[in-house]
Amino acid sequence: MSDDTIRLAAVGRIVRRRGRLLVLLALVGALFGYGAGLLFPPRYTTSASVLLPGAWQERELLTQAEIATSSVVVDRAADALGWSGVGGDELRDRVSAGATDGNIIRVSGTADTPERAQRLADQMVRQFVAFNARIGADDGPEPAARPEELRQLVVRTHRRITELADNADPGRGVESVQTRTELAKLRTALQDAVKKLEQTDSAADRSNMVVMGPAARPTGETPPTRAQFIVGGALLFLVLAIVGHLAAARTGGRPRSATEIAEALGSTPLGTVGVPVDRASGRPGGGTPRARARARRLLGLDVRWDTPVLRTSGDEAGMRIRYRRVCGRLRDRLPTTRRLLVVVPEDDGIARRAAERLVAESESDPRTASAASPVLRVVAVGATQPVVPDRDGDESGALVVLSAGDRTAGELAGIAEACADAGRDLVGVVLAEPVRTRPTRSAGRPPAAATPVVAVEDNALEGAR
């Protein structure tokens, strides 16, 4: 792939050409998620609500929520439940509380079974209400008597004001002024008493918390469930596989065009030839061990996903013209008859088939009798550590045939260095591409006598079978 922005078309091509591999990796991810789910037991969560009557500020509600999950309330709930091996420290991680609209404190509890979760939430609410009631009782009986005293004070004050108003001198003397001043003070005291009475009534109402029914028994597990672990593992492996394909394609640095490949080899491109492949699958045959080829074909690894869609060639006659044009360019570069070594990577089945047909077309070309034509001999070399045979007599040049996008720049440089170490000059590069044939007219086949002669070293043949 180039450095252009990755489009959805690239992801779609990965899904189409690596579908079986992606399905296999998704199954592996599902098994991984299932194993991870076994490490986390199922959990169930439920909640119970407590209504706080009266007027409450937001800060006060948050304080009550903190009290509901305080260590005192949790420890008392743990003692009341009496679960073996479960103390207040463990329960503190399983409970939570929050203030909602309408002066409601919602207390939640989480346990390994629905029954335990229900009991935990109910017990937490019960201990929370009891703790608040005990805080109110600790103030003693005096606060409970204050509302009645204030009411009596209000009644006496009203009576006193009435008496003074009746006995006051209606004149404007000093005594009348003092009387009116006293009445004003009494009215102020009366207003303060009324305010204190209202505050006391509100505080009394606050102490009467209401539990809004028992907690509901949970019917489903708390996320993440085991099914979510399985689905998450499958999606994780699927995404990692797609990202890995894209990253490998962007960092692989594989030349694709004939010009880029020729520059990496330090030679000249002579042309591009087509190799017919199966129309349904687009896979050329041969070139790899049978068991390995079967596994690669099963997983869809025998065809690169980042290669362009196979184009349809004209017909057999058109493909033959391409091969003969390459042979003609080769004769133009070699005016005298010379023996050339056709170098192909041993794991490149398309390049091998193109090289064999190039040899056949060179021998069957009718212009061979009137023009000096080089004699071609095919040899397969390793991709990682290529070894090219040394010069033998007048066999000095080398022609490289390979597929586009299969070799990195380093591997191409290694092939060029192997040819240089063997004393062979690179006369050109031929690019082989898989195509789909469209038979429109009968095309003459090469004569039977023009069977390509492939001379490959023993170790190269063993690696190519």
Automatic annotation (TrEMBL):
Source superkingdom: Bacteria
Matches recorded under InterPro entries: Bact_polysacc_biosynth/exp
Entry keywords, A to Z: Membrane, Transmembrane, Transmembrane helix
Transmembrane segments: 21-40, 229-248
Start and end residues of each stretch annotated as Disordered: 272-291, 438-465
Keyword Transmembrane recorded: yes
Biased segments, Low complexity type: 446-456
Family matches, as PANTHER family: CAPSULAR EXOPOLYSACCHARIDE FAMILY (PTHR32309:SF31), TYROSINE-PROTEIN KINASE (PTHR32309)
Name of the protein this chain belongs to: Polysaccharide biosynthesis protein
Species annotation: Streptomyces alkaliterrae
